[in-house]
Write a structure and sequence with these properties.
heterodimer; A: about 290 residues; mainly alpha; MetI-like fold; B: about 325 residues; flat
Chain lengths: ~290, ~325
């Protein structure tokens, strides 16, 4: 986690008034201890994933590997029995279109609901927003039924559709709060020039939207990649499983050697972890938006 | 007419989303409620109205509904009315899980934010570490936590139990999530691990939102640093605490992935959302699955709807 400094923000540091007192030492000790506890599972994952099958026995579980081996990684990556590679492909086939489309929809909605408002726009926003908090279990049975009834293409396409629809509230929310910070003058000026809605969106709003696109896309990427609930209800065909379902299937059986389980968990988490490490600051902003205006 | 020309296009642009949400959120919720009141309890859907699914989820002491339900469930013995025992267990689990998870994450988050609030070297690093579990799926996290909290005895011990043995803390050994009484509390530990960083970030933003002049003024009046927090900063954090409670509460009510990843389908770790899944997939009891889903929705709505209304209203006031 050495690259985690990606989220360091420039900060005005006040001149320090005191020497390191006992309280200071205690504070750092507590912070460090908490960091170690949070990272403990990562240690376990890494250490176990680099062990050979022979070494992966319980009594030595906390120790570093004697022989560092990539065997478990290889098995979890594309091994015959436990390989996750095809499922990673499925996840990408799911996440990329779903993220792009739902982010774009959110941008349009957010623009209209904050800067090109119509009577009742706030009510419409509230109407959409509720969809963010529902337990998706409450729509799951009819949803699977409706897919069958209309003969929707099976597997990944169904998941893409579901994530787009149920992503509308959060993406709209993030963009709406972001666009609310664009100076009204900018929009008014465009209106004075008799620019229509789409033109205003295209030439005034879109060019300044990059940060909101990044925040929203990261949010959607992470939550869709990590989703298990929709996938397990909607995708019946094992060949179309996204990686979370495949991972749960591999690791759910105690037959799978635990070094392979750990390597598999790491592989399945790598894409979101990479995004987090590289773009952590934007990730954080998405989180804050998710808390409404905390 | 000119007015419509002004806002018409906007409404048009949003209308696909309104339509999708109307159908797939509100419409399907309605449909789900309908299923929950149907007699679709085996492979075949029929059209009858039937409250038997709910009757099994509520203590059915007496009354027609209960008797009817009993008759449906047991075939022909209307006397043996009782609530589904698995459901009762689920509720206990949910309650204990919620208690440990919500309080744990709230406390951890607040303490970490408090420690980070004032000029800590490497604040960005600490924040990034505390927050990183949010980027990991519950399924992946569950793999490692299941191993950490493995209750296997003797020389098959792993995880924490093994660590305790090695550190000479054997008395701390326990059954973790397979404990009959406290299993759900153990399940809440990884959830606290996952969400504490998020709550920390919320509180940190809250701390930073307190105007420095207010703190300074209190210091001028000779208040100690602790009293500044006690009387100036903490009162400002009430809205943050409310948000955090709502977020944690609604995650808790619908917790699913984490439980499946750690405990699978065992009754000893089962929560309402997991039971719903089992009912649909294994028992093909759609009405009861839908009934549980409806109850989850009701539980969350009670929590969220007032909060949403309050937030939007206060936003408008600003």
């Amino acid at each position: 986690m050495s690259t985690a400094s990606a989220t360091v923000e420039p900060r005005v540091r006040r001149p320090r008034r005191r020497r390191a007192t006992g309280a200071q030492v205690l504070k750092y000790a507590a912070l460090l201890f908490a960091a170690l506890v949070v990272l403990l599972p990562v240690y376990v994952l890494l250490v176990a994933s680099f062990k050979t099958g022979a070494e992966a026995e319980p009594s030595r579980a906390w120790a570093l590997p004697d022989v560092w081996s990539l065997d478990a990684w290889r098995q979890a990556w594309n091994g015959e029995q436990y390989g996750l590679l095809p499922f990673l492909e499925n996840s990408f086939k799911l996440v990329i279109p779903a993220t792009l489309i739902s982010t774009f929809l959110g941008s349009l909605n957010g623009f209209v609901l904050s800067r090109w408002r119509f009577p009742g726009a706030d009510l419409v926003f509230l109407f959409l927003l509720f969809g963010m908090f529902i337990p998706y279990q409450a729509v799951m049975i009819p949803l699977t039924q409706i897919f069958i009834d209309v003969d929707f293409p099976e597997g990944i396409p169904r998941l893409v559709f579901a994530h787009i629809v149920y992503g509308i509230p959060i993406t709209t929310l993030i963009f709406r709060s972001y666009y609310a910070t664009i100076p009204e003058d900018l929009i008014e000026a465009a209106r004075m020039d008799r620019a229509g809605m789409l033109r205003t969106y295209w030439s005034v709003v879109l060019p300044v939207s990059a940060p909101a696109f990044v925040v929203t896309a990261i949010w959607q990427f992470t939550s869709i990649w990590n989703d298990f609930l929709f996938a397990v209800f909607i995708v019946d065909d094992p060949e179309q499983w996204p990686v979370t379902v495949a991972l749960n299937n591999t690791t759910g059986s105690f037959v799978t050697p635990y070094n392979v389980q750990m390597a598999a968990a790491l592989i399945a988490s790598l894409p979101t972890l990479v995004v987090y490490i590289l773009l952590g600051r934007y990730f954080m902003r998405g989180l804050m938006a998710g808390a409404l205006k905390g | 007419m000119t007015k419509i020309r002004r806002w018409g296009p906007g409404l048009l642009l949003v209308s696909p989303s309104i339509f999708l949400v109307a159908v797939f959120v509100y419409g399907l919720i309605g449909w789900n409620v309908k299923v929950s009141f149907s007699d679709w309890r085996q492979a075949q859907e029929t059209s009858g109205f039937d409250t038997s699914a709910y009757a099994e989820l509520f203590p059915a002491d007496t009354g027609e509904v209960g008797e009817f339900a009993g008759a449906v469930v047991t075939g022909d013995q209307p006397e043996s009315l009782s609530t589904d025992p698995a459901w009762i267990i689920d509720l206990h689990h949910a309650l204990l899980f919620t208690l440990v998870f919500v309080l744990g994450a709230l406390l951890m988050g607040a303490v970490l934010a408090f420690l980070l609030d004032k000029g800590v070297k490497g604040e960005g690093f600490f924040r990034a570490v505390y927050l990183f579990p949010m980027a990991v799926s519950f399924i992946a996290a569950g793999v490692v936590w299941r191993w950490l909290m493995n209750p296997a005895p003797g020389n098959r011990s792993t995880g924490f139990n093994l660590l305790f043995d090695k550190l000479g803390l054997d008395f701390l050994r326990n059954e973790w999530y397979l404990g009959t009484d406290w299993g759900a509390a153990a399940l809440a530990i990884p959830a606290v691990w996952a969400l504490s960083g998020y709550i920390m970030a919320l509180y940190l933003a809250g701390f930073r939102g307190v105007p420095e002049e207010l703190r300074e003024a209190a210091r001028m009046d000779g208040a100690s640093e602790w009293r500044v927090y006690r009387h100036v900063v903490f009162p400002h954090l009430r809205p943050v605490t409310l948000s955090a409670l709502i977020i944690l509460g609604h995650i808790s009510i619908k917790v699913f992935d984490l439980i499946v990843a750690i405990g699978g389908k065992q009754l000893i770790t089962q929560t309402p959302a997991v039971y719903m899944w089992i009912l649909i997939y294994d028992a093909r009891d759609y009405a009861k699955g839908a009934a549980i889903a409806t109850l989850l929705l009701v539980g969350i709505s009670v929590l969220v709807v007032p909060y949403l209304l309050y937030t939007v209203r206060s936003e408008r006031r600003v």
